[in-house]
Amino acid sequence: MAILAVIFLSALNGFLTRLLMDQGAYEVNPIMAYFLNVSHFAFVASKYALTCMVALIGLMLRNVVICRIKRPTYALLYLLAGAFAPVVACELYLISAAII
User: What is the pTM assigned to this prediction?
Assistant: First the structure.
């Protein structure tokens, strides 16, 4: 479920980022800003590929225990999904504030 949440929230983040950019916002992530300057397809493809790569690595290492925090690696996928949620919520707020 965490992997699906991460991929869904990442795709939603990409879509909302494009909507915000149409309203004058700009991308603060320098890697994604580079791909946005290349093309919209490059932005979407790189966002999806990078997210899937991180999710796949997390899936492959899901049973590895991180010694310092004594938690399995799959817990980081939930953390990543939890980190995407406020970003998407903020973007939704910005879009709604721009519409009003």
Answer: 0.79
